[in-house]
Design a protein that fits this description.
The chain is α/β, with parallel strands linked by helices and 365 residues long. 28% of the residues lie in helices and 23% in strands. It has two domains: 117 residues, NAD(P)-binding Rossmann-like Domain (Rossmann fold, 3-Layer(aba) Sandwich); 194 residues, Dihydrodipicolinate Reductase, domain 2, CATH 3.30.360. A nine-stranded mixed β-sheet has the order 16-15-14-13-7-12-11-8-17, with helices on one face. α4 packs parallel to α5, α5 runs antiparallel to α9 and α6 crosses α7.
Length: 365
């Protein structure tokens, strides 16, 4: 685009601060409007971006100077806000998940496609130097033909640090739907789409106790599986093993590992944008840290917006709605497989996004 992409932000909660770090410095983006059900939160944004305006959601979505709606509402509202924005002729970029269910996500995708609008979605951590350097290593044959991968996220639960952890233990929450998008988006970026899943899941206890804040000691009911594991069969034949848990104390296992016929790769935490990538080659016993070779340098949440702002029909947004939909579909099928005890196909698919060459995003001077 010759001019900055003009952004209308809906939902000025805690995560909006991370996006503002990018919106305030990148020359391809301009925040022009903010809406939140709590007016004080919307007004707080103006302390960082004095040129933006506060308005209600309907007015923001209808505003002629808003090119794209940045949807940072709660997950249950993602589809509703996205559909309203699309109906008003606005492109949309949303926080993960794309919608509360894969069915709702498919509706949003179809609406954007019919309207000829661009749809993007977090996580965009995969566009940083960590995952992109790992992807380049895979694509360059550093480990030979990929055979298998593993993804591990272990924590005893968010109630230990979050003052209001209720959502994490209600439908739509749980370790897979909460943290899985980071890991599965990374796996699809590295190895391609998933064609079939086999899952298993458990729940160790039916209640959690809040550990800090004004509600400390309050009991929270648990209505979701809190330990999910499974096998993902990628379209290209790679088998990925995934473990997402709110039950275990901790793990020394790598966040993600990729194993090939000639070597193994340690991939950094996909919840971050950077981190070391290490390789161990066949016939050796030493791990070598690879130099940073791909991805957006020195970035953070919101780089997916900047990537979208420079997208073309030939190079679609890398943090796309289609990728987010496929990841959500995979997660839902994995949970369904765990509940039914059967392997299940994943009907959606997506091509791996274009790799990100090593570069900096242009900043305002």
């Amino acid at each position: 685009m010759d001019k900055p992409l003009r952004i209308g932000l809906v939902g000025a909660g805690a995560i909006s601060g991370a996006y503002l770090d990018r919106l305030t410095v990148l020359e391809s983006l301009e925040l022009v409007a903010v809406a939140d059900l709590a007016p004080r939160r919307a007004k707080a944004v103006l302390e960082r971006v004095s040129t933006a305006q506060t308005m209600d959601v309907d007015d923001l979505i209808a505003a002629p100077d808003v090119d794209l709606v940045l949807n940072l509402t709660v997950p249950q509202s993602h589809a509703e806000v996205a559909l309203q924005a699309i109906a008003a002729g606005k492109s949309v970029y949303g926080e993960k998940p794309l919608a509360g269910t894969a069915a709702d996500a498919a509706t949003v995708l179809a609406a954007a496609d019919r309207a000829g609008l661009v749809l993007g979605c977090a996580p965009d951590t995969v566009l940083g130097t960590g995952i992109q350097t790992a992807r380049k290593a895979v694509d360059d044959g550093e480990i030979g033909t990929p055979i298998a991968a593993s993804a591990t996220m272990v924590t005893p639960g968010h109630e230990a640090w979050h003052p209001n952890p209720d959502f994490y233990y209600q439908p739509g929450g749980g370790p897979l739907l909460d943290m899985g998008p980071y890991y599965l988006t990374a796996l699809v970026t590295l190895l391609g789409p998933v064609a079939r899943v086999t899952g298993a899941a458990t729940r160790t206890r039916d209640e959690r106790v809040i550990g800090l804040g004004p509600r400390r000691g309050e009991v929270v009911p648990v209505d979701v599986d809190t330990h999910v594991t499974g096998v993902l069969e990628h379209r290209g034949g790679v088998l990925s093993t995934i473990l997402m848990s709110f039950d275990a104390v901790g793990s020394k296992a790598s966040r993600i590992e990729v194993h090939g016929e000639r070597g193994s790769l340690v991939v950094p935490d996909p919840n971050n944008f950077d981190g070391d990538v290490a390789v161990c080659r066949l016939g050796g016993n030493q791990w070598e840290t690879l130099p940073v070779s791909a991805g957006y340098r020195d970035t953070g949440r919101g780089c997916g917006l900047a990537d979208l702002a420079t997208a073309t029909p030939q190079r679609p947004p890398r943090a796309s709605g289609l990728l987010a939909y496929h990841v959500l579909d995979v997660m839902e099928q994995l949970l369904e497989s765990a509940h039914t005890g059967t392997s299940l196909p994943v009907n959606s698919s997506v091509e791996r996004p274009e790799p990100v060459p090593l570069q900096d995003l242009a900043r305002r001077v």
